[in-house]
Amino acid sequence: MISRRIIRIKVLQILYAFFTSPDTSINNSEKELFFSLQKTYDLYHYLMALIVEIEKFAEDRIDLGLKKHRPTSAELDPNTRFVKNLLIYQLKTNIPLAKYLESEKLSWADHEDLIRKLYFSLLEQDFYKEYMTSEQNSYVEDRKLVEDIFKYMILGNEDVESLLEEQSIYWNDDLDFVVSMILKTFKKFKEFSDDRQALLPMYKDDEDRQFTRDLYRKVVLNHAENMEMIKQHTLNWDIERIAFIDNLILELALSEFLYFPSIPTKVTMNEYIELSKYYSTEKSRNFINGILDKALKDLKKADKIIKAGRGLIGEEEE
Asked: How crowded is the C-beta side of 221, counted as CA atoms within 13 Å?
């Protein structure tokens, strides 16, 4: 499922677009937020289909070799371990995956060059060579190969990243997160999983979907108050000169402190400091950390932090 970290990142991106595009309405921006999360879920299915396409390409090459007028000895007796990989077969025959790909019209049919390039790159990988020659032949080994392909070939692959960026602006920062979702999915597959093996849902639960909407709205509707609060804690700074993205990260964190009683403040602090590593400079990260720490202490003294349930964990005064 889409994690809350991905949700926070998507909310940050949509808020940035909203505040820098005065013609955008709140409702339209909110629709775009949920659309961007839907695109992340699309990519989750789309990349699982990629490994199936690589296997199909390998299978076609074996068939072509056997049909040659004068096949070589290697072509007559090909190593079929990869094309018989059990996890790939499960993905190939998985009904939920096939239905989703069909309903969203997601296909690699027009990208044979990339499939070919990935396949020949795979042939050169040490982990692939070891897999193909190993005497061990088990479902665990099959799954490990597929996991290694995602971790060491698809993740960080410039050709894959370039193609995804061309296809959707919403996929620019999604590859790392989506691959982690896919790896979690593979852990749920077992040797005897059938063709109805469930994939991850889009959201963990309805609460996460509501969290998405509420977080976005709280920042938009309380923007003036948030900015005033930031100004109070940055007296030695010219707020106009603080990077706008840093202000938005601060606003998101303050909103979680104030309006989300079930989220521990330590979780909020950690999440937005981590998020700032991707979207701010090192100097900005230290600044955000310092301002949030100071703001949180003042909000606690003013009894404005109200946490309930599991949100009470770690909320004692230090």
From this structure: 10
Gap between the Cα atoms of 250 and 22, Å rounded: 21
Task: Tell me the domains of the chain and their CATH numbers.
Answer: 4-188 (no CATH), 222-312 (1.10.940.10)
Integer angstrom CA distances of residue 204 from 45, 156, 181, 210, 254: 17, 27, 12, 11, 24
**Measured distance CA(261)–CA(309) in Å, rounded:** 8
99: nearest Cα among 176, 153, 45: 45
Instruction: State how far the Cα of 173 lies from the Cα of 109, in Å rounded to an integer.
Output: 24
pLDDT of 71-95, one tens digit each?
888 888 899 999 999 999 999 999 9
Judge contact between 117 and 162, C-beta under 8 A: no
Secondary structure (DSSP) of 89-101? HHHHT-HHHHHHH
Residue 233 identity: H
pLDDT of residue 279: 87
Prediction pTM value: 0.91
